[in-house]
Amino acid sequence: MGPPLKLFKNQKYQELKQECIKDGRLFCDPTFLTENDSLFYNRLLPGKVVWKRPQSPNQEEQEVETDWGLLKGHTYTMTDIRKIRLGERLVQVFGTEKLYMVRLRNPLGRQEWSGPWSEISEEWQQLTAADRKNLGLVMSDDGEFWMSLEDFCRNFRELNVCRNVYNPILGQKELESVVGCWTVNDDPLMNRSGGCYNNQDTFLQNPQYIFTVPEDGHKVIMSLQQKDLRTYRRMGRPDNYIIGFELFKVEMNRKFRLHHLYIQERAGTSTYIDTRTVFLSKYLKKGNYVLIPTMFQHGRTSEFLLRIFSELPVQLRELTLDMPKMSCWNLARGYPKVVTQITVHSAEGLEKKYANENVNPYLVIKCGKEEVRSPIQKNTVHAIFDTQAIFYRRTTDIPIIVQVWNSRKFCDQFLGQVTLDADPSDCRDLKSLYLRKKGGPTAKVKQGHISFKIISSDDLTEF
């Protein structure tokens, strides 16, 4: 048996493949750019390498008619696609039981396909008007024509899927947008061009935008569009930079920029590619999310348009501050000295008074007068929450209190709590504690326990 395979930059193919299948996106390797440095790591290049991808026909070939009547470099609209099962008579005519057909339209209303299944073709003439109607092979507009899926794939090289997601007249969707830019600054807290997720030291220096998903199972379509750079061709710039974005589920009360990723869940990643616009469509759970638009390489400048399409308002806004502002109010009450992050993973073995009682638990995480409430979990004594919160505290004498409640019709039931000092020197590993009655860490133990991770720091920009 040969030596074990060595993973390239620790990339696990099967995991990457499953992520792409789950997200419905193509794999784009961020570690293998179309640059000479990506080749011949251990020796010099044998000569000049020219990177190319299929291009549109040159100017002389634009709108030139092919042998089958299509126009080179021309855009056609796909208006229908059908999988057709043929009857016994037509099976004998065409020698197949199924047809895969595509209907296209020339927006100019002229110059149609003249190949198989066109109106002048042998295949089309073998069908009666009744056959065409029964099979759904109808055309409602001048310039429309049918062709087989095989011929479609042979004659077209690019397909753009358009989403009709926003109708301001009917009010069917919400659209929220912001215009931003990637800018360079020597100060890490002021720099806004940190590159993609691979640049771990600078990634979080990119612009950051937070939005709120109001309910579970909410579909959100995110779009990042870069500035049109074609006017800068004479200056040697590319038509498009490689762009993309990352999405993180964050604390329910986050108001300031992310500086390190300790407890945040990576909720989505767009494709990184050198196109004008990149999209990502996701069904998201209720909560707050931070979207970070990036160029692939750090240290570059450009402008962008970020848009979010959703069924309900998501309150898209930029995170600009790194920590609480110094103000007269803070001076009077005391400026925060400690920042604490907490993630409550689960509450298990909760109290149930009656065997047939429905327990609908939820969390209340408190620090002083500030509190965060989790969504309600239905009919379970083993609830998974993964609820995150962040607090800026004047002193560690102000504890973090995690309470578990049972949501009821008339009066909610207190199930227990834990009280945490959350000192910066405390262990940062996952912990589990029994619930107690109200009254502090020495109060009487109640049924059930919670699992959580809590981290504190006296550096207000650590999290």
Automatic annotation (TrEMBL):
Example of a GO MF term: calcium-dependent cysteine-type endopeptidase activity
SUPFAM superfamilies: C2 domain (Calcium/lipid-binding domain, CaLB) (SSF49562), Calpain large subunit, middle domain (domain III) (SSF49758), Cysteine proteinases (SSF54001)
Domain of life of the native organism: Eukaryota
Gene3D superfamilies hit by this protein: 2.60.120.380, C2 domain, Cysteine proteinases
Any single GO BP term: proteolysis
Localization, UniProt: Cytoplasm, Cytoskeleton, Spindle; Cytoplasm, Perinuclear region
GO cellular component, one term: microtubule
Coiled coil segments of this chain: none
Domain called Calpain catalytic: residue spans: 69-165
InterPro entries assigned to the protein according to its UniProt record, in alphabetical order: C2_Calpain (IPR033884), C2_dom (IPR000008), C2_domain_sf (IPR035892), C2_III (IPR033883), Calpain_cysteine_protease (IPR022684), Calpain_domain_III (IPR022682), Calpain_III (IPR022683), Calpain_III_sf (IPR036213)
Domain C2: from-to ranges: 320-443
Active site per the UniProt annotation: H74, N106
Keywords: Cytoplasm, Cytoskeleton, Microtubule
One protein family per Pfam: Calpain_III
Family: Belongs to the peptidase C2 family.
Assembly behavior: Interacts (via domain III) with microtubules. Interacts (via domain II) with ARHGEF2 (via the N-terminal zinc finger).
PANTHER family per UniProt: CALPAIN, CALPAIN-6
Role according to the record: Microtubule-stabilizing protein that may be involved in the regulation of microtubule dynamics and cytoskeletal organization. May act as a regulator of RAC1 activity through interaction with ARHGEF2 to control lamellipodial formation and cell mobility. Does not seem to have protease activity as it has lost the active site residues.
Descriptive protein name: Calpain-6
Source organism (scientific name): Rhinolophus ferrumequinum (Greater horseshoe bat)
